[in-house]
Write a structure and sequence with these properties.
Rossmann fold, 320 residues, binds nicotinamide-adenine-dinucleotide, alpha/beta, 15% strand, binds (2R)-2,3-dihydroxypropanoic acid
Length: 320
């Protein structure tokens, strides 16, 4: 008998179909909308394998409804949506998608850096709104990226890919990480700094840590106050790492140049969120890994795990 697989979103048919060789598949039939929680809890009742997106919370509640669950595959590298302890307790395995999205996400971070520093979205709105009357010296002036100091908090796969790109802009790279990256320091001249020194010295601060109990609220009012008044903060990791209301207050008081945000505490962000009232906030709908090549690679990495499990082989990229 085939194993039962439930997929919490409508994924492209050509990706899912080959898995029917091993699985009896059911899936939520919406591409855009998250499956309502009650439907998800009912759907997992008899499934052995669950394929989720970062919008699905895999926690004690879900596990208590899924007595046969053995494997969860997560279509993301970040796995803060998964309660790893709860999984461990029940002997459920989980996998994620490290590596395949590193470059694409680092590219987006550089996009946010340029967009905020050079006021690109604001300038585009200005043109489209018919405000462009002439060229004048101080029109929409921004700040230089080239030659500036970037401070990267979380020097993992993506953090290091951002740092290498920053070298191409002749930036001085400071970083803070759980452990020193001696090899990268020697090879590229990246400099380790305490969080405090990094915040004080950087023109651009980029957050690339995972989101967990240690990093929740890592950047609050006190940390923002350490930053230069004309610095930019970029978050492409997870929303809860920056205190959004503290960020709003700091930007509103003119104590930061701008913020580039791909992620938010609540996603989608509420349209009346105070951050969205500020013209120096560039806000994106969590598109860090959103290139066709990379989203396909993420799906295919999950498929590889699911195929291995279906064939009775070991899965890789385990997070449990
Ligand atoms: N915006 C997007 O679409 C998008 C895309 C991919 C990843 N992400 C996020 O980016 C995160 C990082 O991905 P990655 O592949 O680089 O992961 P990674 O594990 O390779 O890197 C994370 C790094 O952060 C460091 N770190 C952890 N806690 C820290 C702390 N308190 N202070 C300083 N450093 C700390 C770790 O030591 C590690 O080097 C993911 O967990 C995910 O949340 C977002
Ligand atoms: O963690 C991740 O992988 C992103 O947030 C989506 O690609």
């Amino acid at each position: 008998m085939k194993k039962k697989l439930f997929i919490t979103r409508k994924f492209p048919a050509q990706i899912v179909e080959p898995l029917r060789e091993y699985y009896d598949i059911s899936q939520w039939d919406e591409e855009e909308m998250v499956i309502p929680r009650d439907k998800l809890l009912a759907a997992v009742a008899d499934c052995e394998v669950l394929w989720v997106t970062l919008a699905d919370q895999v926690n004690e509640e879900l596990l208590s409804h899924a007595p046969n669950l053995k494997l969860v595959t997560n279509l993301a590298v970040g796995y803060n949506n998964i309660d790893v302890q709860a999984l461990r307790k029940r002997g459920v395995m989980a996998t994620n998608t490290p590596g395949v999205l590193t470059n694409t996400t680092a590219d987006l971070v550089m996009g946010l850096l340029l967009a905020t520093a050079r006021r690109i979205p604001e300038s585009e709105r200005y043109l489209r709104e018919g405000k462009w009357k002439s060229w004048y010296p101080m029109q929409l002036v921004g700040k230089d990226v080239s030659g500036a100091t970037i401070g990267i908090i979380g020097m993992g796969r993506i953090g290091q890919a951002v740092a290498r790109r920053a070298k191409g802009f002749d930036m001085k790279v400071l970083y803070n990480n759980r452990r020193r990256r001696h090899e990268a320091e020697e090879m590229y001249g990246f400099q380790y700094a305490s969080l405090e020194e990094l915040l004080k010295q950087s023109d651009f601060v980029v957050i690339m840590t995972p989101y967990n109990n240690d990093t929740e609220g890592l950047i609050g009012a006190e940390e923002l106050a350490l930053m230069k008044d004309d610095a930019v903060i970029i978050n492409a990791s997870r929303g809860g790492i920056i205190d959004e209301l503290a960020l709003y207050d700091t930007l509103k008081e003119g104590k930061l140049w701008a913020a580039g945000l791909d992620v938010f505490e609540q996603e989608p962000i509420a349209m009346d969120h105070p951050l969205l009232t500020l013209s120096n906030v560039v806000a994106l709908p969590h598109i860090g890994s959103a290139s066709l090549e990379t989203r396909t690679a993420m799906l295919m990495l999950n498929v590889k795990e699911l195929t291995a499990y279906g064939q009775g082989k070991a899965v890789t990229n385990r997070i449990d």
